[in-house]
């Protein structure tokens, strides 16, 4: 499936509050479709040097948007993760049990809240690391299309620029995901017949994934994982700028992130597929 279609599906299924934070991929692609291939002339009257300055400014604004959202979300996830880690530590050590709870039912409610919060934060972490990867991949596709349409060589210098931006620095978030998954292993049994050692009740993960507090994040996360898996499928032109290369998993624990190891910052290749909507038109960016 075409990257643009996958990207659009992801936007439809992600959390509503996140949709406006993504690359305006479709609009940028429509804009570039107004340039005659390799002609070096924009059909709608703008000289190419001036157009490139403007286009770079637009992409830089998109990256600033990515950075602001990513950094804010990462900071929020770190704060919430630290609070959850402290709560889980207190549960595991029995600290403050008698001071905090007056009954087993009260403690059970507290444990349920911890589990819900853990499921939500893990889902948001996966969504955020996918946010970084999908925007980076979309940016590469737009830059490749720009080079193809104009005959310019903007892809490599701008990709190098994007490579050093905060939204691309996903290593701390990846560590948070691994820590969160370790807590999930502790707080949720692997088999349905296992009973919660803290409260004596069924504590299965499946039970919590469909309740109101966790359902939206769960559905968005599952949809995102499906998109990443689709993009990992081998293409006819597997190379450092193909989607299957960018989203390949080195092992079963891969988060699907585009990282320093698999980024295309030192390669230049042809586009992996043909554009499906060459004839589309757009008059302006809104």
From TrEMBL:
<dbReference type="Pfam" id="PF03105">
    <property type="entry name" value="SPX"/>
</dbReference>
<feature type="region of interest" description="Disordered">
    <location>
        <begin position="252"/>
        <end position="286"/>
    </location>
</feature>
<protein>
    <submittedName>
        <fullName>SPX domain</fullName>
    </submittedName>
</protein>
<feature type="compositionally biased region" description="Polar residues">
    <location>
        <begin position="256"/>
        <end position="265"/>
    </location>
</feature>
<feature type="compositionally biased region" description="Acidic residues">
    <location>
        <begin position="269"/>
        <end position="286"/>
    </location>
</feature>
<feature type="domain" description="SPX">
    <location>
        <begin position="1"/>
        <end position="160"/>
    </location>
</feature>
<dbReference type="InterPro" id="IPR004331">
    <property type="entry name" value="SPX_dom"/>
</dbReference>
<dbReference type="GO" id="GO:0033554">
    <property type="term" value="P:cellular response to stress"/>
</dbReference>
<dbReference type="InterPro" id="IPR031142">
    <property type="entry name" value="SPX_prot"/>
</dbReference>
